[in-house]
Amino acid sequence: MANVIYTPNDILEQEFKTKMRGYDPIEVDEFLDNIIKDYEAYNKDLLALREENDRLKAKVDQLSKAQPSATRVKEAAPKSSAVTNFDILKRLSNLEREVFGKKLDQQASATQTAVDDIKNNYTQAEDDNEKTRQF
Question: Where are the domains of the chain?
Answer without folding.
Answer: 8-15+23-65+83-128
